[in-house]
Specification:
The complex is a heterodimer of chains A (354) and B (626). Chain A has 354 residues and is α+β, with helices and mostly antiparallel strands. Helix content of chain A is 24%, strand content 19%. The chains are: A alpha+beta (354), B alpha/beta (626). Bound molecules: flavin mononucleotide and iron/sulfur cluster (3 copies). Flavin mononucleotide binds next to strand 8 and helix 22 of chain B.
């Protein structure tokens, strides 16, 4: 059923597709970039922003690439004059209800609306009219929501409901007044929100912002360091955003093989320990009633020596290993190997066994 | 807008009826000699209790008949039995309509109120002499005679709350025939009939069923769309209130054909009477074995669930409706898969309109060829329309497809009220377009309406005369759609808002030189780039009025003038010194003291203080205010 037997051309480039694939999928195969605002790989296609409209030869009206499945023989054109004109008008309409505030917006340099408006040379005044002036919701320690910057792409709502399954936010209101919000507009608290920040990670504009990184630097100033989360054994990867040696925030690694950019509250927001003055950074050896900093070599030598003594004196059953769910599988395996082959004991367990 | 006109119309008709002394005798269906004294036997009184009738006071009329008959010694139980409740008869401008059948003679009264009942009972039922001045006039007959009623035929004739009444007129015969055939045969018959969906788009019903029947999913659904969101539309309500079993029967036949075991009727909560009648009908149909397990011992199981919608216009859109049934926000979903593959709960689903379903039992029972005898080649059958606006006879009509607008408005609708000429007809509600008077002779079918930039829509028709400003009319419709937009996609959510703002500034005299071009460009983009039918059709009223009445737009923008003199901010009142008779009435009614007048002096109007309410204009007995 998912055989690649449909022949489609995208701007003249031929690609083979299956009947389940959309024009957007086909364009990616052909290395053709189609602009999108409401699309996120982690979510079902939505078709809300209409920016991905393309023309198909002999089809009377333009179609959205993200929600149209390919048909055999289609000749798709993604950059015709008419399509670009319509995209420009769509962006103008968005800007007509958007604060002209890029210079002090957290998302500058990392905002899809800004990127496309620049690319399409959009005139923000063309459809000037009533625009929102709603209060900014800064009601919790992690997430700031400025509805005025929201373009209603629905990504936050979908990720919260379909991926996190938290159901914290939903589209509210109708027509021009619709916007994503919590039920009854209540603050996000631990009662209704996981604070996973997934909504922030998918927001293409500055409407949802990580509060902890506010005012600390622009996207282009930060060095992105890929790492693996140390909180649990799942092994999610993400980027530490580092400026002048300081970790300012965590952003998603959409290519992460384990988590595809998804994170939980700990991975996304639990990084304060990195720069904590109370953090233990070297091994410490207890000498009498004093705790003395040591090198790794000193510490490991001491451990090996003491284990050896116990083993000699009391035998293997006096030793065992208890590992942690926060370790990866590999780490847990290594511990059991140590206990069974070196200690010759079967006393191995892990807190995740319950 | 429409409402006000209809109210005015009702009042006017009421005063006419009161004055009339002797109607033309041809207006009556006289079959039996009168004056034979009291006759309580063979007496049936039919009172319209459709929503229109109830609003006009039919319950009071029923109660009063009961009381009067009792008071005059006509036995109470007879009285109770005699007063039948019937569904909408369509002639809403003259509600409450009461039909009295006595000894084989039928008389129809219009505009009956409770206080008229005693005279009707005394003179007609007891005295045998109908009260001529209250009988329906020739317009009632013109209204009915030109119509071809196959769906509305029983509405107003049978008791919608009694399944036996439906069975007596061959009800559920189509279902019995269906169960003796294969689903394939039934679908072929529906396809052959050429029936196209009555919900607006006109998609062939048989084809839709065929697509769905091809899926081998064990779970499928059939849904009846009774959301009826168009302002001014009430044909679906009338069919359900007048003959609910015809819709149920159509759905059961549909369920059998596509292989669904469960069906939903999605109906707006604002239709309490229709919902109540559906509930009664479903209960009765279950008792008689037309619904439930093993229907008529055929082995086919099918049941129906009523789902009430909260009355959002967009929930009439197929995919939004299904999301709403699923308990989600009523928001259209992009058509990655058609509903026949993934519809309700992602299972194959058929959705049809109320009227579409009501046609089905007739097609099955009488055959596709019989059905094709009505209408045109590509639009077969009849269509129910809701006529509203400045016509003499407003209400529901059913005509064969292909009748011209002229016949509908002048022959059935009785022509225009007042002296003003017809200017345009808005068909298809907020999704349709304005058709100017010069196109009155186009036949009303799916394709002809589309060719002039309008659409059939659900079948509402608003007739406007020269007093209506076309820019203002377009503004009315776009303000409806922009308010009802679900907000999902950009062109519809922000685009319609901007169109409304542009139209508003034009009607206030602040239009800009290139506003028409801007409207055309924006309209085109909203039509082409919106996700669902709401956005895709929202610009139609604007685009069609620009197409046919561009000069009115230009008059507003270039000269600050409203040719229909309807846009309040552009109105300018002044006193014509030549015709002013110095009576001073205008100065007494002006709420803002803008009229300067002293006894024996001509009135003068102070433009600065004038709030353009028009009170002076209405008050002046000499038409001296311009
Ligand atoms: C905004 C919008 C509102 C609609 N409202 C209704 C409605 O109230 N009733 C209806 O039958 N169809 C309505 N439709 C059409 C339905 O989407 C659908 O096409 C129809 O119910 C299918 O039935 P049919 O094939 O029998 O016409 C609406 C469509 C749109 C886009
Ligand atoms: S932080 Fe997580 S749970 Fe809270 S609203 Fe955002 S996505 Fe939903
Ligand atoms: S807050 Fe962001 S993600 Fe959510 S709808 Fe608005 S722009 Fe999209
Ligand atoms: S066209 Fe309008 S109603 Fe339809 S999906 Fe878009 S915003 Fe919603």
């Amino acid at each position: 059923m998912t055989e690649n037997n449909l022949k489609v051309t995208i701007n003249g480039r031929e690609v083979l597709c299956s009947r389940n694939e959309t024009i957007l999928d086909a364009a990616r195969k052909a290395d053709v970039n189609i602009p999108t605002l409401c699309y996120d790989d982690r979510l079902e296609p939505y078709g809300g922003c209409r920016l991905c409209i393309v023309e198909i030869k002999d089809v009377p009206r333009p179609v959205p690439a993200c929600t149209t499945r390919v048909k055999d023989g289609w000749e798709v054109l993604t950059e015709t004059v008419e399509v670009r004109r319509m995209r420009k008008n769509i962006l103008s309409l968005l800007l007509s209800n958007h604060p002209n505030d890029c210079m002090r917006c957290e998302a500058t340099g990392n905002c899809a609306l800004q990127t496309y408006s620049y690319e399409y040379g959009v005139d923000g005044d063309r459809f000037a009219g009533e625009s929102w002036n709603l209060p900014i919701k800064d009601d919790n320690p992690f997430i700031v929501y400025d509805p005025n910057k929201c373009i209603l792409c629905g990504r936050c709502v979908r990720i919260c409901n379909d991926v996190v399954m938290a159901g914290t936010i939903e589209m509210t209101g109708r027509g021009f007044d619709s916007k994503p919000d919590t039920s009854f507009g209540k603050p996000r608290t631990l009662d209704n929100c996981e604070f996973c920040g997934q909504c922030v990670s998918t927001c293409p504009t500055g409407a949802l912002i990580d509060k902890k990184g506010c005012g600390k630097g622009r996207a282009y100033e930060m060095k992105k360091v890929k790492t693996t989360c140390s909180y649990c054994g799942t092994g999610c990867s993400y980027y530490l955003n580092v400026k002048e040696g300081e970790v300012i925030k965590v952003t998603s690694d959409y290519e992460g093989p384990v988590n595809k950019g998804n994170l939980c509250i700990k991975g996304r927001y639990g990084y304060d320990f990195i720069h904590s003055p109370e953090r233990i950074t070297t091994p410490i050896i207890r000498k009498g009633d004093k705790q003395v900093e040591a090198t790794w070599d000193e510490a490991l030598d001491l451990i090996a020596k003491r284990f050896g003594e116990i083993l000699e004196k009391s035998g293997p059953s006096a030793l065992g290993g208890f590992s942690s769910a926060r370790c990866s599988n590999e780490e847990n395996y290594l511990l059991s190997k140590l206990v069974r082959t070196v200690f010759k004991s079967n006393n191995v367990d892990c807190c995740a066994r319950v | 807008m429409v409402k006000v006109n209809r109210m005015a119309l009702k009042k006017k008709a009421a005063s006419q009826a009161g004055k009339k002394v002797k109607p033309k005798t041809s207006a009556r269906t006289k079959t039996v000699a009168r004056g034979k004294g009291p006759a309580a036997k063979n007496l049936t009184i039919k009172v319209c209790v459709g929503t229109g009738g109830l609003a006009a006071g039919s319950q009071d009329v029923i109660d009063e008949f009961g009381k009067q008959l009792k008071a005059h010694g006509i036995k109470a139980e007879i009285a109770k039995k005699c007063v039948n409740k019937t569904g909408c008869r369509g002639f809403c401008a003259k509600d409450v309509i009461v039909e009295i059948n006595q000894n084989g003679s039928t008389e129809v009264y219009q505009l009956v109120t409770a206080d008229k009942v005693s005279r009707i009972v005394e003179e007609h039922i007891i005295g045998g002499d109908p009260v001529d001045q209250w009988l329906v006039g020739p317009d009632y007959h013109a209204f009915h005679d030109k119509q071809t009623k196959i769906l509305l035929k029983q509405c107003g004739q049978i008791d919608p709350e009694n399944i036996q009444a439906y069975l007596d007129i061959d009800g559920y015969k189509g279902l019995k025939k269906t169960l003796s055939q294969t689903p394939f045969e039934v679908i072929e018959e529906v396809k052959a009939s050429g029936l196209r969906g009555r919900g607006g788009a006109g998609f062939p019903a048989g084809l839709k069923w065929e697509f769905c029947s091809m899926s081998d999913s064990p779970e499928k659904y059939i849904i009846c769309n009774a959301d009826e969101g168009d302002p001014g539309a009430f044909m679906d309500r009338a069919i359900i209130e007048g003959n609910p079993h015809s819709v149920l029967e159509g759905m059961i036949i549909g369920g059998y054909s596509i292989g669904a075991k469960e069906g939903y009727i999605y109906i707006r909560a604002e239709y309490p009477l229709a919902i109540q009648r559906l509930e009664i009908a479903i209960t009765q149909a279950r008792k008689r074995g037309f619904l439930g397990k093993n229907i008529l011992k055929s082995g086919f199981d099918f049941d129906l669930i009523i789902k009430q919608g909260a009355g959002a216009f967009v929930c009439g859109e197929a995919s939004a409706l299904m999301r709403s049934i699923e308990g989600k926000r009523g928001m259209p979903r992009a058509k990655l898969w058609r509903s026949a593959v993934k519809g309700l709960w992602d299972k194959p689903t058929v959705l049809n309109n109320v009227e579409t379903f009501a046609n089905i039992p007739l097609i099955i029972e009488k055959g596709a060829d019989w059905y094709k005898g009505f209408g045109t080649e590509n639009s077969t059958g009849t269509k129910v329309f809701a006529l509203t606006g400045k016509m003499k006879n407003t209400g529901l009509i059913e005509v064969p497809m292909g009748m011209t607008l002229r016949e509908m408005i002048y022959d059935i609708g009785g022509g225009m009220t007042g002296k003003k000429n017809l200017k345009a007809i808005q068909t298809g509600g907020p999704s349709g377009g304005c058709i100017p008077a010069e196109h009155l002779d186009i036949p009303v079918d799916f394709d002809s309406l589309a060719s002039v930039g309008s659409m059939m829509g659900s079948g509402s028709m608003v007739v406007v005369d020269e007093d209506t400003c076309m820019v203002d009319l377009a503004k009315f419709f776009i303000s409806f759609t922009q308010h009802e937009s679900c907000g999902k996609c950009v062109p519809c959510r922000i685009g319609t808002k901007r169109m409304l703002e542009i139209l508003t500034r034009i009607t206030e005299g602040n239009g800009k030189e290139d506003d028409i071009d801007l409207l055309l460009e924006l309209g085109n983009d909203i039509k082409h780039a919106s996700l669902c039918g709401l956005g895709q059709s929202a610009p139609n009223p604007i685009l069609s009025t620009i197409r046919f009445f561009r000069d009115e737009y230009e008059a507003h923008i270039k000269y600050g003038r409203c040719p229909a003199n309807a846009c309040k901010s552009l109105r300018q009142y002044l006193v014509n010194a030549e015709t002013c008779k110095m009576c001073g009435k205008c100065s007494r009614v002006c709420p803002s003291g803008a009229i300067i007048w002293e006894p024996r002096h001509k009135a003068e109007l102070d433009k600065v203080n004038c709030v353009k309410c028009g009170a002076c204009y209405d008050a002046c007995p000499f038409n001296a205010i311009l």
